[in-house]
Amino acid sequence: MTLRVAIGGFGAIGKIVARRLDEGVEGLILAAVAARDITRAEAIMEGFARKVPVIPLTQLWQFGDVIVECAPAAVLRELAEPALSHGRTVMVLSCGALLDNFDLVDLACQHGSRIVVPTGALVGLDAVVAAAEGGIASVRMVTRKPPGGLAGAPYLVANGIDVIGLTEPRLVFTGTAREAARGFPANVNVAAALALAGIGPDRTIVEIWADPTVTRNTHRIDVEAEVARFSMQIENVPSDDNPRTGRLTALSVIAALKKLSSPLAIGT
Q1: CB 3.0 to 4.6 Å from 199: which of 7, 187, 203, 208, for a disulfide?
Q2: What is the pTM of this model?
Q3: What radius of gyration, in Å, describes the C-alpha atoms of the chain?
Q4: pLDDT confidence of 91, banded at 50, 70, 90?
């Protein structure tokens, strides 16, 4: 079986995923992309071995069996609603937005659709999902990013916090995963993914540091569960096109897509 993949968003992540599919991935074929700048997207598409149409977000479901959301969080519903209403699988990277649009899960249930959240830039979600089956007491995540990767986040703007020019680490946020997702929608989708895997967005605690001493986006997770206590840390190399996003995220999407079509699936 070959799955048709349509990609919503042709930025730092979407371009990488599209190129990998164009190069050839068994069981998957690139079917269409959507982009804000259609002219630019069509120009990039000229370099592909197999050109596909550049279309509006709302039409992606007509071309793909799986719709991959690589777009700004604000357009999640625009992409997801028509796709889920027509029985498609939607892979969501802006899972912070999913927390405030959880009725999309009900919509998927009504139409036999699926919402898939890839691991993204995090590590150990399999362990968290498994531990949740036995009961989790607490989950805490500490994120450290170069200041430039956090600049302009709504929470910082609303609270008058300037991170440019820092010479030492500064704690800029402590709160729940739900609050973190709203305050840093382009930065901590990992917090939402962690919350969905474990004990929910209102019990998962998040710290965010603007840290000029790091060059990589760093996430540390501490979990206290009935069956295990574990800690995990990952240091992601930021994307060249978007310092808010790690390079690993796009590769995680490819791995998740392959898992949908492969006769052998590794991991929970």
Answers
A1: 203
A2: 0.91
A3: 18
A4: very high
